Amino acid sequence: xxxxxxxxNWKMNLTLSEGSFLVNEILAAAPxxxxxxxxxxxxxxxxxxxxxxxxxxxxHIHVGAQNCSSEKAGAYTGEVSAAMLxxxxxxxxxIGHSERRGYFNEDSAMLAKKANQGLENGLQVIFCCGExxxxxxxxxxxxxxxxQIKEGIFHLTAEQLKNVVIAYEPIWAIGTGRTATSxxxxxxxxxxxxxxxxxxxxxxxxxxxxxxxxxxxxxxAAELFACPDVDGGLIGGASLKADQFLAIISxxxxx
Length: 255
Ligand code: 13P
Hints:
The chain is α/β, with parallel strands linked by helices. It has a single domain (4-253), classed as TIM Barrel, CATH 3.20.20. It contains twelve helices and eight strands. An eight-stranded parallel barrel has the order 1-2-3-4-5-6-7-8, surrounded by five helices. Helix 5 crosses helix 7. It is globular. It starts with a strand and ends with a helix. The chain binds 1,3-dihydroxyacetonephosphate. 1,3-dihydroxyacetonephosphate binds at residues 9, 97, 169, 174-175, 213-216, 234-238.
């Protein structure tokens, strides 16, 4: 059975003390998670060691980074390598978020290298894809997202793919309060699974977790997570409030 995951993406929010407080609030009330029902908290880089220390020994609530360098090490001022993340106690890394693609010009070639770095350094990669509004309006979202996946991760071996989670995040739904309907999410998640099946076979496709992201909140999470091909969520705004994030975790556990 494939894993269900709810992952918090704090983006560029929260000071160290605010982050510590939020993690403690989550830990105080988090329902029991298991190997097949996991939680990830992806913090800014400066929080990672603090969050890792808070989560040490707490099974199946993991620390994630929001990015890593495409390079192994060296003279790359301001960058953070995947090896450093692993050493800091990080288990997951988000690669290819639309904000990285859009604001920081990260293209598929760079994202493929970042995925390699994450995997070579023992991290689970959460690979993001998703279309802008004009692509959705034109009805060509499947081709667009399929291309992102091919360019970003099809160079990986089937063995490496076991450590990849896909997050589908339509750009028009991120931070806008406009969520994809469960029918829209299910349709494209099923398509993504078919894309994986065509390249890696049915077992790999059945085993890969595909998360939905984009204005996911306590009100819509249960319906989204009930879709057969939606295996949890990548949560932005609602992950910054303990009560909301906890409600979304509960929706995932009960799905
Ligand atoms: P929101 O949940 O704030 O829409 O953000 C989604 C997202 O980008 C998570 O990575």
